[in-house]
Amino acid sequence: MWIIVLFFAIGILLGRLLRAHSSLIRLADQLAMVSILFLLFVLGLSVGLNQEALAHFGTLGLQAAILTSGAIIGSVAAVQLLSLSTRRKR
Amino acid sequence: MKSSLIILVCFVAGILTGRLAPLPSPLELDRYTLYLLCALLLFVGVSVGGDHHLWQTIRQRDNLRLALLPLLVIIGTLFGVAAVSPVLPTLPLRDALAVGAGFGYYSLSSVLLTQTRGETLGVVALLANLMREIATLVLAPLLVRLFGKLAPIASGGATAMDSTLPIIVRFSGKEYSIAALFSGIVLTTAVPFLILIILSM
Predict the structure, then answer these.
(1) Hey, is the C-beta of A84 within 8 angstroms of any chain B C-beta?
(2) Residue of A nearest to B32 (CA)
(3) In the 8-state DSSP scheme, what is residue B37?
(4) B44: closest CA among A19, A41, A28, A16?
(5) Inter-chain contact A19–B43, Cβ cutoff 8 Å?
């Protein structure tokens, strides 16, 4: 799976080299969007074919909601440290 | 927000096709999706690396607080997810953390987790990270009032560089746009690395 990250790193370097050519960067953006749409269609397809995943969709949504609450509360609480440090400086 | 809708339509269209069309198992597709995933990350990399904001903000190295912002979002998110994960006994902590490490980047995190851990976790990642984006859009004014102007940037995670940036600028102020962009770009870049690191633990 790490090969994916290698492609990502190559992409960043390539983007850095090509950053003057904004049309190419925009093309990469659009190609990324098309790949994402296709991959999510495939994800939907495998969910649709999987009776079990479909039956548990509500449970998965609840799990997602709980995880997201934790993520948002945790991250908002953590950046409070920065706000506190500014207030002290003033 | 418009692109979120298109993405959801694609996902739902996939579900309906899977339900209605008598297709063979999508195992055949699996092999090709890995290639497409590599291509996707190459494109995302080019678009991140070609973003002139990235190199601009990195040059403002004097601002240590700016650099700390995405780091704190990462730490806070992972601690928050770990704190709620005992409520979900069927979900291993590692999987919960990997979902959290999407930081709102639902398209990439769901596709990555589908490929590595199966479609069930892929769906959880899609829903959880989509909820993070939507909650940030809806709650931004409340978050600013209760927890200060950095709060929607934290809540937005990776989306603070694009889909939630307008709402952050509106409620936190224009002077926070650089912080939002920087935090969003760093988190977007961190998503594939962190997900794979967490899964390999």
Answers:
(1) no
(2) A39
(3) H
(4) A28
(5) no
pLDDT value of position B69? 94
CB pairs under 8 A between A and B: 298
Q: Do both A5 and A34 map to the same domain?
A: yes
Question: How far is A84 from chain B, CA to nearest CA, in Å?
Answer: 10
A46 and A67 fall within a common domain: no
Q: What is the pLDDT of residue B153?
A: 97
Residues of B in contact with A73 (CB under 8 A): 80
Query: pLDDT band for position B76 (50/70/90)?
Result: very high
Residues in A touching B16 (Cβ below 8 Å)? 44, 48
How many Å lie between the alpha carbon of A10 and the closest alpha carbon of chain B?
7
Interface TM-score (ipTM) > 0.90:
no
Tokens 């709102």 belong to B104
- Pair (A47, A64) in one structural domain: no
| Cβ neighbours of A50 in B, within 8 Å | 18, 119
pTM of the predicted model, to two decimals?
Answer: 0.85
Q: What total number of domains does chain A contain?
A: 2
Tell me the C-alpha to C-alpha distance, in Å, between residue B57 and each of A28, B63, B179.
Answer: 22, 9, 9
SS3 A39: helix
Query: Whose CA is closest to B77, among B164, B157, B169?
Result: B157
Half-sphere exposure of B190 toward its Cβ, with a 13 Å CA cutoff? 22
Rounded CA separation A11/B39 (Å)? 9
